[in-house]
TrEMBL record:
Domain ABC transmembrane type-1 per the UniProt entry, residue ranges: 302-585
Protein name: P-loop containing nucleoside triphosphate hydrolase protein
Principal cellular location given in the protein's record: membrane
Gene Ontology terms: cellular component: membrane
Length: 830
């Protein structure tokens, strides 16, 4: 290399190689102190513009050119290192080593730091300083190429040609880069579009706090409590009310819902818990993730741990054996290479995905299935145990999406044990061997490189977590729109709402993809920063080992060992960054599941609560008052008694509180102290178990909801394990048997979602049959015959009269003529 350049050209060439990248490097450092510019205030113009010129930089092209320029410095430096190792000569005063390290740090750092400053709202690429710096570097690189071309002597070496090719390539690269920076893209757009585009562009990756709530008008999971059966309040809903999923007056073609208030945004977006809070939440569900009660599964987990340790040993010996194989060929000794080659192939097989990792994953499957099964069962059971108040305000689609995303926590423990811990173990082992094989200086450099890598990954991932959380919230709300429209399909058709719902969905998708774009761009930024740190560490480490080889302190095969082991180590290190992102993303995805699992169970049995014992079936409401939200009154001092075998009809207008009485009797809500008592045979229903209470009560609701299963299954739901004869008998009593037999599949006919394939009267008769099959001592009838025709109503009235004989019953009706004939006078609530 050196002999090909005249001595007179060495000094100026050294200066050109050092100064050229240093200019860009200093400019890159100056960006650390760049701050967003204050918005300029322009005096109003008497002319109102229709269109304005917008200038946008081609960011993708700029980042690509800067990255490629940094890559050229890396390849130039590696060429120098490999030449020095195999020639065992380190030429002095070439400036190549400084040129490579500083150039890589300058251009790759400029790309990474520029992207980060853009995240902070700094218009980096409009500044003049980096344009001047790149122009100066271009001029100096041209001078370097000209000087090398004039200094060519015969014979030409391949290495010399490479050192000429790389700066020549950079000259060809910097020219279009400078052109792109000097001449941004100009477009003329309408004034309204330019304002919206500017707003979007300036907040490219900014996770604005007040902009967290979706502008599609979608409601959060914690919506306002529904107030069923309450008195009408004269107060109107003010600004503090929660946004609903609908616009106030849907337009026929354009739906533009204003964003919610900042207070609503705070309720919509999940709180940002600390790591300690998250792991405290996870600690409560650890028994469901770890098979603490299963010794066979714990033994399998222990075997997997041993395989993981064996994998660390294999990772160490792979580069060691390969280095010994290179040593045999390097020295030309008579030592046979076949043992080393065979050992290397065997170790590579164990290290590959189909080796030890495959065996470990196979043994881990039962443990993984345990955690999946237990967590799914925990979530499902918890949802069923939550109070009616929760289910009255929740959105089905959003809850389902939360459960889907929350499944990610099942694999968090597996990721920590089999990926994160082995990665740190590999790094620690590598640092020890670098000290033994080389010197502490090299281990210190690699340690700082890895520390910088982990720190950068943590910092940027924490930032990305905010974006990811906001994207997930939009995804949950989109799922809510799906379910909302499917459940209300008929309503959409009744009012020609297809275009309105399509626009609403399109707006929600647009908002989701806006955050999705930010998440993906921030991921590319993270990858760029990580790659920059790794390549810089590789170049500096290779130079340090190359110097040792030139000095005779190390051998070329040890250089091979370093490069091989470092490349192998960067695999887990890259994985560590990925794993941190994955775990963080999993925790974000599970935040709402953890929040759902922490949702309080409002209705709980008292400790050692006895079962309800029904002897006479006497019901009594004793001065009962109740409010759903603490602001409006649903019941106020209601008292009445249903003696044994009596039927009481509650007659009143809608909203008078009749349905509230049934819900309180069924313990969908509990009365607070001082709000009265509800007694069955003298037993306060708050003091008995919910299971025994609900077993003693049969309900026929006004709007029966059926499972998407067969008619026989829906009737048999009243008595689990009922025989077919019992189901048929209940259907006959409910006057639905003949109608069922008219269906092609009879009792196997599927009723559709929520029973949509049946008419209103058919659904109500199925509900009556279900209650008849249950045969409870107490009956609650909520407009039980409201959906029946006159002829069928008479038959059902007779069946109900036979059913209520000897039982206490409470029925609800808007007018007395459609209620069960009362034995006692109707109870007026209003």
């Amino acid at each position: 290399m050196a002999p090909s350049i005249p001595a007179a050209a060495l000094a100026p060439l050294f200066l050109l190689r050092v100064i050229s990248p240093s200019i860009v490097f200093l400019t890159t450092l100056s960006f650390l102190f760049a701050r967003p510019a204050a918005p300029s205030v322009q005096s109003p113009s008497p002319i109102t513009p229709v269109v304005v010129a917008t200038r946008t930089h081609r960011r993708a092209v700029i980042y690509a050119f800067l990255s490629i320029a940094g890559l050229s410095y890396l390849l130039d430096g590696l060429t120098f290192v490999f030449w020095a190792v195999f020639r065992k000569e380190w030429p002095a005063f070439t400036g190549l080593e400084v040129n490579a390290v500083v150039g890589l740090a300058a251009f790759a750092g400029l790309a990474a730091l520029g992207a980060w400053k853009e995240v902070q709202g700094v218009d980096v690429w409009s500044m003049k300083r980096h344009k001047v710096a790149i122009f100066a570097t271009l001029v100096l690189d041209i001078a370097q190429v000209v000087l090398l071309a004039l200094a060519i002597t015969r014979p030409l070496s391949t290495v010399f040609l490479l050192h000429l090719a790389f700066p020549s390539f950079r000259v060809l690269l910097l020219v279009p880069l400078l052109f792109v920076l000097l001449f941004p893209r100009v477009a003329y757009v309408p004034v309204e579009a330019s304002v919206e585009e500017a707003s979007t562009d300036t907040t490219l990756l900014l996770p604005a706090q007040d902009a967290a709530a979706p502008s599609s008008g979608l409601s959060p999971l914690s919506a306002e409590l529904s107030k069923y059966g309450t008195f009408r309040s004269g107060r109107s809903i003010g600004q503090n009310s929660i946004a609903t999923t609908r616009t106030a007056t849907p337009a026929p073609s354009t739906v533009r819902v204003p964003p919610p208030k900042a207070q609503e945004a705070k309720e919509d977006i999940a709180l940002d818990p600390s790591w300690r809070e998250i792991f405290d939440r996870i600690k409560h569900i650890t028994p469901y993730l770890w098979p603490s009660k299963s010794f066979p599964l714990q033994f399998l987990a222990f075997l997997c741990l041993l395989i993981m340790i064996a994998g660390r040993v294999v990772n160490l010996f792979v580069p060691l054996v390969f280095a010994q194989l290179v040593r045999v060929f390097e020295e030309g000794s008579k030592e046979s290479p076949w043992p080393y080659l065979g050992a290397y192939v065997a170790l590579r097989f164990l290290q590959a995905t189909g080796g030890l990792p495959a065996l470990r994953d196979t043994l881990w499957i039962p443990v993984m299935q345990y955690s999946d099964r237990e967590m799914s069962q925990l979530s499902f059971d918890h949802l069923l145990q939550l109070s009616f108040a929760f289910h009255a305000r929740r959105k089905t689609g959003e809850v389902l999406r939360i459960l889907d995303r929350g499944a990610a926590i099942n694999h968090t423990f597996e990721t920590l044990v089999f990926n994160v811990l082995p990665t740190f173990a590999d790094i620690a082992i590598a640092l020890v061997f670098f000290i033994i094989y080389f010197e502490w200086t090299l281990a210190l450099v690699i340690f700082f490189v890895m520390a910088a890598y982990v720190a950068a990954s943590v910092i940027l991932t924490r930032y990305r977590t905010k974006l990811r959380r906001q994207m997930n919230d939009r995804d949950v709300l989109i799922r809510g729109i799906h379910t909302d429209c499917l459940l209300n399909y008929e309503t959409v058709k009744y009012f020609n709402g297809e275009q309105h719902e399509g626009e609403r969905y399109r707006e929600a998708i647009r908002e989701y993809q806006n955050y999705e774009y930010k998440v993906m761009v921030s991921l590319n930024l993270l990858n760029l920063v990580q790659n920059f740190i790794i390549t810089l560490g590789l170049l500096v480490g290779a130079m340090l080992v190359a110097i040792r080889v030139v000095r005779g302190e190390s051998q070329p095969h040890q250089f091979v060992f370093f490069i091989t082991y470092l490349a192998q180590l960067y695999g887990p290190l890259n994985m560590l960054g990925y794993l941190y992102r994955t775990i963080n993303q999993s925790l974000v995805d599970t935040e709402r599941l953890l929040k759902l699992l922490s949702e309080p169970k409002d209705i709980n049995d008292k400790p050692n609560a006895p079962d309800l014992i029904v002897r006479n079936g006497e019901l009594e409401f004793d001065n009962v008052s109740f409010s759903y939200d603490g602001r409006t009154t649903a019941l106020d001092g209601v008292s009445f008694k249903v003696p044994k075998g009596s039927s009481v009809a509650l007659v009143g207008e809608s909203g008078a509180g009749k349905s509230t009485i049934l819900r309180l009797l069924y313990r969908f809500y509990d009365l607070k102290e001082g709000e009265g008592r509800i007694l069955i045979d003298g037993q306060d229903i708050r003091d008995v178990t919910q299971a025994s209470l609900r077993k003693a009560i049969g309900v026929v609701p006004q709007d029966p909801v059926l499972f998407n299963a067969s008619i026989g299954y829906n009737i048999g739901y009243g008595k689990f394990g009922a025989s077919q004869d019992e189901i048929v008998a209940a259907a006959k009593a409910a006057q639905i048997h003949d109608r069922i037999l008219s269906f092609p599949d009879g009792y196997d006919t599927r009723v559709g979602e929520r029973g949509i394939r049946l008419s209103g009267g058919e659904k109500q008769r199925v509900a009556i049959a279900r209650t008849l099959l249950k045969d409870p001592p107490i009956l609650l009838l909520d407009e039980a015959t409201s959906a029946l025709d006159t002829s069928t109503e008479k038959d059902i009235q007779k069946a109900l009269q036979n059913l209520v004989q000897g039982r206490s019953s409470l029925s609800i009706a808007h007018r007395l003529s459609v209620s069960v004939t009362p034995i006692r006078s109707p109870c007026k609530l209003c």
